[in-house]
Amino acid sequence: LESAVDPVRPEVRTFTLTTSRALPFVKNDLAVVFADLRQKIASLGVQRPLPRLRLDPGDGGYVIRFDVPEQPRITVNRVVVQGADTTRAKAVLRETELAKAAPLDANQLSRAQTNLGNLGAFQRTDLTTLGESPAEGGTLPWKEGDLLLRADERRPWVLSSAFGYDKSHGYHVGLGAQRLNFLGMGRSLDFGMRVGDNTLRNPTLRKWFPTGDFDRSVDSFSVGYTDPWFLPGMLKDLLQDRTQYRIEGAYIEETQSAFLAHRRRVLNSLDWKLGEFESIRLGHRYERTDIYANTEGIELSELFNMAGVPGARTVISAPFFQLVRDKRDNPYDPKRGTYFFAKLELANQLFGTGSKYSFAKLDLRQQWNWPIGEHARYGVVMASARLGIARPTVASVDDLPLAERFFAGGPYTVRGVEPDMLGPVGTLGVYDHSGGTSVRTGSRTIPLGGQGLIVLNLEYRFPLFGSDTIWAEVFVDSGQVYARLSPDQRGDGDPAPFPALRTTIGLGVILKLGLPIKFEYATDIKRLLGQPLSQQEEDTRLRGLLISAGYQY
Questions:
Q1: 310 against 221, higher pLDDT
Q2: pLDDT (tens digit per residue) in 36-90
Q3: Of 253, 242, 249, nearest in space to 220 by CA
Q4: What's 103's DSSP letter?
Q5: 149 CB neighbour count, 10 Å cutoff
Q6: Best-predicted range by mean pLDDT (28-37, 140-149, 498-507, 538-547)
Q7: What is the model's pLDDT at position 257?
Q8: How far apart, in Å, are the Cα atoms of 271 and each of 116, 229, 240, 362, 393?
Q9: Are 508 and 518 in contact (CB under 8 A)?
Q10: How far does Cα 362 stand from its chain's mean position?
Q11: Strands (E), 350-469
Q12: Number of CB atoms found within 10 A of residue 196's CB
């Protein structure tokens, strides 16, 4: 590529591209180059870019000429805003990124309008140039390069509600309130409440939405603050301009098969986008968890001894790094695209973690979606894989805290296994303390979770009778939870440290009624092949249907 200046007209420059070999003459390629050239000229502030294309025959082929005539450029003069009464001018200018004397680029105007919409402060925005929207009644002294932004601000408070249910978490009702455009800078305050059986304790709801042999529930109460343009001076050279900061405090009551956990959590995070599909999150989690028995008659000391944990309270202070690449067409009901998630968490005494609870934890997930037929007319094939690895980093401790272990089984993991019952299990005694004595009256099998997790899923979803509302699915799930990643040397009769993956096969029906409802059933593939199940596999296999409603969060 050579550049030359016309000595007669120094403002005219000629660029000549000479190829090292002959290239096929393809009109589509030429059209792409022509369109890119027009876009480049427009980015310089030329309002109606009109490069001329000319083809001249040459000795070895065509000589392609693009002539760009001299045209006037328009630069930004000012932005006049109508309708943004509470939004501060600094927020508008920050989102539009239209600096004075910058080239007036149509693509930049489009991006500015999109950014204003993403701010969350406006229901509608309309950004036009002077030529497209002349001054009404001549009340404003309009000049070339002036822009008019008509904005319709949203109501400051947004209320939301949700309902969900699945066998592994029970039913929940979600209520939320969000204060938008806080202080006129696009910041937000939000208050959330998710209440289930721990809070409502309604016998009728518990009967309608059962969770199997164990009562399960996740209840949370949270308050959060989000700043979409977090850029303090001392970090300005380290962070991107559009870095989002969020802080959230939450109180969570989580009833699991083996225990009841009361969590008090403070979460700080910085989010920014690497590209159109990739985003990074860097943050810190501080959490204090208290463990209680979730069933009357269970001895906590027996649970802690069996699980190998030192006590009922854990204090976790852990920085984390998270990477997401989401190319799905719809995050809730994808028909095409891929999704990748990676999260690394380091809980160490250096950051304030309790002396017996330090660990390193890695969670990797990948999902693929392939449509069958045009617009997924014949359904969608989905495949996913998940790998979890966690290790204590204290030499004197062999196990993770109960609340930090991997659990699997039930919805979204291996659906032919009862919720959380994949992998290591233990047996706890149930005692009657009435009458001043302690009498063992029975026992219950509980999951213990582990330091390693593998889950593989393959699923085919397809519409029934050509309906967009009723879909069916067939699926194969395979996975395992491993107690430890470096088990002790085995003795005679000890179970295998890394048992084989457990595979189940099933089918289901999905009702897409705005609130999706799923009915699923799965069974061990061994039963279909006529092979015997081990006693643990028999005790933990799925009994009944898996029913879920709503999008889980």
A1: 221
A2: 888 888 888 887 788 888 888 887 788 888 888 888 888 888 888 888 888 888 8
A3: 253
A4: B
A5: 21
A6: 498-507
A7: 79
A8: 19, 10, 10, 19, 28
A9: yes
A10: 16
A11: 359-371, 380-392, 425-432, 439-447, 452-463
A12: 29
d(CA 424, CA 487): 13
Contact between 479 and 501 under an 8 Å Cβ cutoff? The reply is yes
Measured CA to CA, the distance from residue 468 to residue 461 in angstroms comes to 12
Closest by Cα among 521, 509, 522 to 549: 509
**DSSP string for residues in 220-267:** EEEEEEEETT---GGGTTTS-TT-EEEEEEEEEEEE-SS-EEEEEEEE
Render pLDDT for 252-294 as a digit per residue (tens, 0 to 9). 999 887 788 999 999 999 999 888 899 999 999 999 999 888 7
Question: What is residue 553's predicted lDDT score, i.e. its pLDDT?
Answer: 32
* Token pair 């209840």: residue: 219
Helices and strands in the chain, H and E counts: 8, 25
- Which residue type does 481 have? V
Helix (H), strand (E), coil (C) string for 481-499: EECCCCCCCCCCCCCCCCC
SS3 58: coil
- The residue to which tokens 């979460």 are assigned: 267
Which tokens is 320 given?
């984390």
359 CB contacts (<8 Å, ≥6 apart)? 347, 390, 391, 392, 393, 400, 401, 404
CA atoms of 398 and 301, how far apart (whole Å): 18
Q: Is a pLDDT exceeding 60 seen at residue 136?
A: no
The span from the CA of 339 to the CA of 327, in Å, is 6
Distances (CA, A) of 508 to 17, 50, 116: 60, 58, 43
Q: In 87-191, where does DSSP find H-type helix?
A: 89-96, 106-118
Which helix (H) or strand (E) is 303 found in, with range? helix 300-307
Sheet holding 78-82, edge to edge: 78-82, 146-153, 122-129
pTM of the model: 0.81
